[in-house]
Design brief:
The complex is a heterodimer of chains A (73) and B (169). Chain A is mainly α. Chain A has helices spanning 10-16, 22-28, 33-40, 48-58, 62-65, and strands at residues 5-8, 66-69. In chain A, strands 1-2 form a two-stranded antiparallel ribbon. In chain B, 80% of the residues lie in helices and 0% in strands. The radius of gyration of chain B is 18 Å and the shape is elongated. The two termini of chain B are 30 Å apart. Classes of the chains: A mainly alpha (73), B mainly alpha (169). Chains A and B meet through helix 3 of A and helix 4 of B.
Chain lengths: 73, 169
């Protein structure tokens, strides 16, 4: 089994939600803005609970926010 | 040694210059590190000169170290809390920024990784301290190594947290 990486579409989803700011999203999902920054940069993998909260904040399914990159560079 | 001190000062200046991007938890880690350094300096300056002279195996030596530890632990905890509270108040007054005391899962994750590194350092210090007894060194060496590993582990824990916050993980 190769190395997998969990990527996300948070930046794109924020853009499609009236350019929601990182701070607004952070407040919606009860984390700090720094956590959203780390998530968008792919430097932090959230817990399952936070992942669901983010998906719910955008009103989309979990797979639309997070996906598995099977060939990370 | 001087190079190391100079490098550390440059690093601190770099961190302070980037302060506007810091989260409150990151600031707290820096304050905690500085508080640990301050307490270690006070300990070295105030307690060690009172070390009893004479036989290194006498009961007075054990009494001295026992008393030092019993006083040091609660005083360090209280001083650390007091310094953090005072800093938060002063910082809020100086910047008009509302202090955010809540920490999310990433903060807790970083805190745990800092704690893990701190425990590794303390474990090494503990083995060194026991090793000093095993090779027949006086008990004061064991106590000094234990004290140093205690302070060292605290600093490594804080430095790990600062590093992880800077790295953005």
């Amino acid at each position: 089994m190769g190395t997998w990486a969990i990527r996300n579409n948070i930046r794109k989803l924020r853009f499609h939600h009236d350019e929601m700011t990182q701070q607004q999203l952070a407040e919606k999902v009860s984390v700090t803005r720094q956590t959203i920054v780390a998530l968008e940069k792919g430097k932090y993998t959230p817990s399952l609970e936070l992942a669901f909260r983010i998906a719910r904040a955008f009103d989309v399914s979990l797979e639309e926010v997070f996906f598995l990159d099977e060939n990370p560079s | 040694m001087l190079h190391y001190v100079w490098y550390t000062l440059l690093k601190v200046r770099y961190i302070l210059q980037k302060e506007h991007t810091m989260s409150s938890q990151e600031r707290q880690a820096i304050v905690s590190l500085l508080a640990t350094l301050l307490l270690a300096a006070i300990f070295l300056g105030y307690v060690l000169p009172r070390y009893p002279s004479g036989n290194p195996y006498s009961p007075e030596v054990f009494h001295f170290w026992g008393l030092a530890v019993v006083i040091l632990v609660p005083v360090s905890i209280a001083a650390n809390i007091a310094i953090s509270i005072v800093f938060s108040i002063v910082y809020s007054m100086a910047t008009q920024e509302k202090a955010a005391f809540f920490s999310d899962e990433r903060d807790k994750f970083i805190e745990l990784r800092g704690l893990r590194n701190a425990l590794y350092v303390f474990l090494c210090g503990f083995f060194l301290a026991m090793g000093s007894l095993a090779i027949g060194m006086p008990p004061s060496v064991m106590f000094i190594v234990l004290m140093c590993s205690g302070y060292g582990s605290g600093m490594v824990g804080n430095l790990s947290q600062i590093y992880l916050y800077r790295k953005g993980s």
